[in-house]
Amino acid sequence: MTSKTLVLSTLILFAASAPLIAQDAERPAIPPQDALKASEIIARVETRNDFRYLDEVDWDEEGYYEIVYFTKDKAKVEMKIDPITGEPI
User: Fold this and answer.
1) Domain locations in the chain?
2) DSSP conformation letters of 44-83
3) Deepest of 16, 30, 53, 65, by most Cβ within 10 A of its Cβ?
4) Could you tell me which residues come within 8 angstroms of residue 81 by beta carbon, excluding any fewer than 6 positions away?
């Protein structure tokens, strides 16, 4: 393989992956700077009717918190929470 072919192959691969790189740059890997603290969001969830206990809190790279909790009657509740408003989405 000549150096010209190698350079051309590298450029083609880079051009093909550029949309994927740009797509990752658009996703918020962390909560935005103006987001509520996770503890504030959890405190709001804990005040919901029939709340019993928190099972899981995760940040989703698509820009929201995923929260799982159980109610007093043992029902599992899964929520997506906006990090800025603290409201379900």
Assistant:
1) 3-81
2) HHHTSTTEEEEEEEEEETTTEEEEEEEETT--EEEEEE-T
3) 65
4) 41, 45, 64, 65, 66, 67, 87, 88, 89
Give the span between the Cα atoms of 62 and 78, in whole angstroms: 16
Distance in angstroms (rounded) separating the CA atoms of residues 36 and 32? 9
Q: What percent of the chain has pLDDT over 70?
A: 69
C-alpha 8/C-alpha 2 separation (Å) is 10
85's tokens: 């408003």
Say how many residues make up the chain. Answer: 89
pLDDT confidence of residue 25:
59
What are 17-32's pLDDT values in tens digits?
656 555 555 666 899 9
